[in-house]
Design a protein that fits this description.
The protein has 147 residues and is mainly alpha-helical. It has seven helices and five strands, in the order αββαβαβαβααα. The strands form two sheets. Strands 3-4-5 form a three-stranded parallel β-sheet. A two-stranded parallel ribbon has the order 1-2. The longest helix is centred in the last third of the chain and has 19 residues.
Length: 147
């Protein structure tokens, strides 16, 4: 979502780092991306696991599951401050203003501490989210809400 902003951010990075590979999934073709179309869960998981950053730019996304999925796969989600859901599931450190230069600066800063952020923030939070959003935990909460 918010594809034009994502493309602009990626293009800004490509001017400095021309070998960056940016992948898009879903039915829409996105210029400047390696478009994979609609992928199954296994391929999506593989893509998350191969990614350093996942751009989660939707404003109205329900739970914005890509934030949770990215964290569970060990990637850093980049979410935007204009989405209330971003603040519910995404560490505030990974949230940027919805402006190209702000997102660019945010990722540059995060990249300097990337390994520490993954081991100290993403991986521990991923363990929590794996438990919290496992099918068994979700089913238990649904059953509990019906009682």
């Amino acid at each position: 979502k918010n594809v034009s902003l994502a493309i602009d951010v990626i293009e800004k990075f490509k001017t400095e780092f021309p070998n960056i590979v940016a992948v898009g999934v879903g039915s829409e073709l996105r210029p400047g991306l390696d478009n994979r179309g609609i992928v199954d869960d296994e391929e999506l998981n593989n893509l998350y696991n191969q990614s350093k950053y996942v751009l989660c730019f939707g404003k109205w996304e329900g739970l914005n599951l890509p934030i949770i999925e990215a964290i569970c796969a060990g990637s850093i989600p980049i979410a935007l401050s204009h989405s209330e859901v971003s603040f519910e599931f995404c560490p505030h450190l990974f949230i940027a203003k919805p402006e190209v230069d702000e997102i660019y600066k945010k990722i540059q800063k995060l990249d300097f501490y990337y390994e520490d952020l993954v081991s100290g923030v993403v991986n521990p939070l991923g363990l929590i989210y794996h438990q919290q959003f496992s099918p068994k935990s979700v089913a238990a909460r649904i059953i509990e809400s019906l009682n």
